[in-house]
Amino acid sequence: MWNDLAPAPRPAGWGAATHVAAGLWRIADRRGVVVGHVRATASERGWRYAAERFHSASGAFRRLGEFWSAAEALECLRYAR
């Protein structure tokens, strides 16, 4: 598929990550409801992971935060509902 160097996020038992583009994963809960995206970007100090959620009123994705690990970005999506 894509030649990503960033490690993929792994929801620990509460959902699934689907690779949708280079550095971008769609995150869904156990029922299959999409809760947001995790986007990986390279920085001078390593990979940064952003948690993003769709905002229907603006029709755009909003960044909830940036983290040093994919696990932290996933937890942000999981609990910021």
Mean pLDDT: 90
Strand elements, count: 5
pLDDT < 50 stretches: none
* Share in β-strands: over 45%
**Major pleated sheet:** 5 strands, antiparallel
Distance between the termini: 30 Å
Q: How would you classify the helix and strand content by structural class? A: mainly beta
- Widest sheet, order of strands: 1-2-3-4-5
What Rg do the Cα atoms give?
Answer: 12 Å
Helix content: 10-25%
Order of helices and strands: EEEEEH
Give the count of helical stretches. 1
Shape: globular
Domain module count: 1
Q: What does this protein look like?
A:
The chain is mainly beta and 81 residues long. The protein has one domain (15-79). The chain is 12% helix and 51% strand. It contains one helix and five strands; from the N terminus they run βββββα. The protein has one helix spanning 70-79, and strands at 15-21, 24-29, 34-43, 46-55, 60-67. Strands 1-2-3-4-5 form a five-stranded antiparallel β-sheet, covered by helices on one side. The relative contact order is 0.22. The mean pLDDT is 90.
